[in-house]
Amino acid sequence: MQPGDIRIPAAELINFGTAALTKAGARASDARLVADHLVMANLTGHDSHGIGLLPAYVKHAVDGLVDVKATPEILHDNGAILKVAGHDAWGRMAGEFAMTAAFPKAEELGVCAVTLSNAHHLGRIGAYGEMAANAGFSAIFFVNVTDHDPMVAPYQGTDARFGTNPVCIALPPTGTKPAFLLDMATSRIAMGKARVAANKGLRVPFGAILDENGLPTDDPSGFKGFEQKGALAPFGDHKGYGLAFAAELLAGVYSGGGTIQPGNERRGGIRNQMIAVIMQPDAFGDAETMERETDAMWEYALASPPADWDSPVVAPGDPERSLRARRSSEGVPMDPETLKQLNAAAEAVGIEGRLGF
Ligand code: NAD
What we know:
Layout: E1 6-8, H1 10-23, H2 28-43, H3 54-63, E2 73-78, E3 81-85, H4 91-109, E4 111-120, H5 126-134, E5 138-146, E6 167-171, E7 180-184, H6 191-200, E8 209-210, E9 216-217, E10 231-232, H7 238-255, E11 271-279, H8 287-302, H9 318-330, E12 332-334, H10 336-348
Parallel strand pairs: 3-4
Antiparallel strand pairs: 1-12, 2-3, 4-11, 5-6, 5-11, 6-7, 8-9, 8-10
The structure holds nicotinamide-adenine-dinucleotide.
């Protein structure tokens, strides 16, 4: 929460997003699902993937960069392999479609590798990780981003050649521990975090961004609104870069949707390709023994004496869980610039009510 921010209840944001997306042409049920998905990202603390993306989504719907009437389709179903075509449908819908198709196969076979091509923006990938974990599965996701100019520079490069290509690993809760949920962009900061920092006039960690000349900086102003001047850096130098590259190859090539290389079209939308390996834990060993070992490892890792006693060691997924509880009761903090962008997007499709007034 920054000076000048106001808190808005999640339900109000969902209703506002639903109305704007419906006016932009989305089916009412899809509009609600997509708006809910965006606001859930805000509730979990990922404002980069939250309702601040509404102006882009509305524009994509109006410009035909998302097919608001499309339905995803299973293209290939052979043993443990499923291939789903997103047909440019809303990412949230396409992602859930792929999960719902894969779960019964993972239940039956112990494992299912499902690919998804040409979905509109999938948003927070952890949402699909949570679907898997809540249904009792473990899952590994690699995602690439196409239809868009690249955003992330390769390690030792000076211009953008990759998307922010997220990786997510989810494991189901045990009797005593919550789900493990590692969900991260392979850029040092997510694109939307640069946008949010620029909108708020804040700095980012030095080196998280390369300027237009390829030099490291802490100034995100080239990412204000939906502009992009410069590039994001990969996290962890060659390691994050390696994972981003792997996501292009596994998600982009295996799904058939393609990579971000310039031979593929870039209309200015956002398309995601995904590969997810869904695993039924019981197929790997005795459930009780596995849970006991999982719990012991959680306890061991989290018992490390904290470097700062105000910031104890937590598990991946814990920060989102605690923020979700807090923001669900206190509301979602919104900065004036993002509010302005949301209201302008709503006005453009004929919505009369304004957020924040
Ligand atoms: P982040 O850096 O905030 O968090 C990354 C992971 O680290 C999370 O799993 C989180 O639980 C964990 N974590 C954070 N602090 C921790 C701590 N102190 N101890 C232990 N674990 C901790 O996330 P990000 O990289 O900024 O990604 C933001 C979101 O953007 C993700 O949901 C991602 O899926 C999404 N994304 C989507 C796309 C797309 O094209 N659809 C592209 C990029 C990113």
